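ugh ok fine here u go
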Amino acid sequence: MKVLFATSNPAKVRNYKEKLLKLGIELLTLKDIDTHIPVEETGKNAIENAYIKAKAYYDELELPTIGMDNNLFIEGIPDELQPGTYVRRINGKELNDDEMIEYYTKLVKEYGGKLKARWVYGMVLINDGNTYEYSWSYEDFYLVSDVNKKRNPGYPLDSISIDKRLNKYFVDLTEEDRLNNKKQDKDDEVISFIINSLNKTHHFNP
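structure:
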């Protein structure tokens, strides 16, 4: 079964593609289809932005479609500097990976060099006209001003994010670390959400 993941972010796809393929679901991305739809993410939170992306592509292609968005909140900085829904869009500009690292490194350094932070994720799956929503958060980490040389394309802030329990940069986490990490549990819950949502309309049984 083919499902479109309406994203061009390779890191988002990488988290789920292999596991879903083993369950009989081929996860397509925007790079796999010959369609580009300008989508203005005007939602007030991650779920609303995820819905906007999923609905735009579902209406155009009539494929089961997933939209996803993630919001960032950082403790110890002024409200007007909170990224929230605008993690990549700073002062109206869409930042690339390197620019994101530069911007957030400077921000964290200005407010102490090590700040607690929280990701809030939203995912929406639209299929046969039905909409399913799932949200989760991850907050067991710090943003720091010392930059790791390793990169995770699509998730550049992994180079300045440190797991609080393991005291390791996200980019340095091993597969064993991830298996013992709460974040891995969330990934499995997301897979279950996708499977269960598809099963409600297609009676999909992996």
